[in-house]
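Quick board copy: two proteins, each given as sequence then tokens.
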Amino acid sequence: MTIYVVYGSTGEYPDHEEWPVRAFMEKRKAEWFVLKADERAAEIAERSRRGRMIMYNSDTGEKSEYDPSLRIDYTGTNYAIWEVELELNL
């Protein structure tokens, strides 16, 4: 059985970070979640840029309902999906 793990990422080179956000049993639900999480992170980043709060790995103080561990730096935040086999019979 395959599960779909949505993960967030930010930064580049040695400061690149990735973190798991949520797992889904259906790929289309994971894809929908990625779209919504990307939109929300972009909204937060845009507001932070207008206030010049985004520096390097800054905490904007604003939370995302899609990603409680949201991190944003000057590269923004992106979400993607890892397809992972779920082992039920160990």
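And the next:
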Amino acid sequence: MTDFDGLSPHSLFPPTRRDAEARLRQFLPRAGRQYAATRNQDPGPEHRDNVSMLSPYIRHRMITEQEVCTAVLGRHSYSQAEKFVQEVLWRTYWKGWLQLRPGVWQAFLRERAEQRERVEASSGWRTALTAAEDGRTGIECLDDWARELTATGYLHNHVRMWFASIWIFTLELPWALRADFFLRHLLDADPASNTLGWRWVAGLQTRGKTYLARPDNIEHYTGGRYRPGGLATEAPAIEGPEPPAAGRLDVACSAADLPDERVVLLLHPEDSHPESLLPESVDVRAVLTLKQTTGWPFGEKARDFVEGAMNDVGRRAESRFGLPTSDASSAPAEAVIEQARTAGAGTVLTPFAPVGPISDALAALERELTGAGVGLLRVRRRWDELAWPNATRGFFPFKKKIPSLLEQTGVLDRE
């Protein structure tokens, strides 16, 4: 049994942009061929030099995908760093895929609620679920990973796949409840990557394609630390409806189309880097933060990380705009309307929030602001405007478009 004493989210992931930038600089020499050769290895929670450990920062855009790719491709050629760049773009792809099919997130929420009801009605399932979450299944690797997740708020990406596969096909427990377990504990969990990753393992995302955790594969990539016995030898896809066809992106504002007037800036955890989102010319007269809302962040450790991240973005916003920052989480509409009236601003700018609880909260806020004569503009990054429309099919067609995306955003020079 692995000891996780001394490993905490705060020690592993200090929630500031300065720490994110330092982590990126430290990883840059290894982002090329070394990463490609070792990325699937999980040598243990105290030995993570083979991966970037940037995911919580990228997830909350304390550092953006574009910044990360720019730094990496400034150090390595695209052919050398292609695997790492693709891993960064997986998160972009998943967000775009879900943005074009928002009903999949709502379907997950409904299925999670139904599975919770079934578990409550079954003492056997309740016992099994509790044992799995506490790390008491008797499968040593799974138990260690469950305890690592709850202690640190992080799991290696390869481990997440093994974990999901064992949960679904060996323990035969409801997939949506384990996806919920990840949502409650992962610092980098978001509705798109988490939900769609679990759907992929289960065979719901790509019809009939599942992921089977094998003892020899686990033994090889954990350096012999684990070779679990008794795992399922087959992975039959979970029955479910076909994924819906891709729709269109909802309307948003670009940084090039911002109004030439006084505005209130509302910041939230989906995008914690307003410095790279808004041009210097924007006339910001008040800054508010929305640190949390109903259903988000999902768990205590994620909540603590987001609290720290939003405190950091508040300090940076104060420096950038020369204005004090206050939190509007307890009463968003009242706080925003008051600030808008005090500042003489008729418009609120906020970073675009992808499908999920923050997006839902902004939609509810917009209805209240409209009634008070205040407009809400969601500002979407050009990175997303260019990338998301290409998430109409699987990742491999999307992958072919990555060099073009990098060229259009100035990350990769045209030859």
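Board note added afterward: The radius of gyration is 22 Å.
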